[in-house]
Amino acid sequence: MTTTDVLPATGGMAHEARAAAMVWRREMIRFQHDKARIVAMLLQPLLFLFVMGTGLSSVVDTGGQVDFRTFLFPGVLAMSVLFSAAFAGISLVWDREFGFLREMLVAPVGLPAIIVGKCLGGATMATLQSVVLLALAGLVGVPYDPVLMVELLALLFVGALLLTAMGVLLSARIKQIQAAMPTSQLIIMPMMFLSGALFPMANLPDWLAVLTKLNPLTYVVQPMRAAIFDHLDVPADAWAALDPSITWWGWEVPIAAQVLVAVVFSGIVLGAAIAAFDRAD
């Protein structure tokens, strides 16, 4: 029997929602039992924040008004979900190799419920991991403001959903985990470096400025940095130098519009992942 021999008999929206919730729950159970991966995924962001951030603070000129590690903090938060979310997405390759994906696809539920549950589970896992970094915010001058923490978590979830959906989309076309890992790295590393996570976006060469604006992760990192700066006493000149506004053909894109771009792009990638699995499996 192949997956095309069985047509899922769906039972309405409530049935599909329960199926998505079960897939989400499976991801949470896997997350709870994989302590080594949690530690490994957090180690790299911590090194960037406290080792690279401290080292570069004496090299990068922030005007003496903002600690470089404060500037770096939202980028490191994005990194904390970047690798974890992408890994959660491409783990579907493992599910395919061990036969679990086939079992899910022949279940009496629609494919969108399975993919949505998988992506929501991966996004939730990645966001939960970032809570550890948020707990260290005060060490780099970021205030423990409840509103700020909620804003950062919401933006991190959007970014994690985007990256998990990208991982799932890759899983639809890549059949072996040996190929999935380097391919995902080839995609997520440029996204990280082109998001403004590690350097200010002011005075970039034109070609680099265009690439940063085309990068969907930029519209997660920049609103997080703006939210942090909004809760600090950052002078206007330092703000303009470290966190310049994103512009499209001279139009200054509002923060709300930047977040909307990230949300819409996440939905597009999620839809593409569903369509890709519908054709491939």
Kindly state the percentage of residues in helix: over 70%
What is the 3D shape?
globular
Tally of discrete structural domains: 1
Global mean pLDDT:
82
Described by strand count, sense and barrel closure, the largest sheet is: 2 strands, antiparallel
Tally of extended strands? 2
Short description:
The protein has 281 residues and is mainly alpha-helical.
Keywords:
2 strands; 281 residues; single chain; two-stranded antiparallel ribbon; 11 helices; mainly alpha
Secondary structure elements and pairings:
Blueprint: H1 13-32, H2 35-56, H3 68-97, H4 100-105, H5 111-134, H6 146-173, H7 177-193, H8 206-214, H9 218-230, H10 236-242, E1 247-248, E2 251-252, H11 255-280
Antiparallel strand pairs: 1-2
Helix pairs in contact: 1-5, 2-3, 2-5, 3-5, 3-6, 3-7, 3-9, 5-6, 5-11, 6-7, 6-9, 6-11, 9-11
How would you describe this protein?
This protein has 281 residues and is mainly alpha-helical. The protein has one domain (10-280). Helix content is 72%, strand content 1%. It has eleven helices and two strands. It has a two-stranded antiparallel ribbon with strand order 1-2. The longest helix is centred in the first third of the chain and has 30 residues, at 68-97. The radius of gyration is 20 Å and the shape is globular. The two termini are 13 Å apart. 40% of the residues are buried. Mean pLDDT is 82; it is low at 1-9.
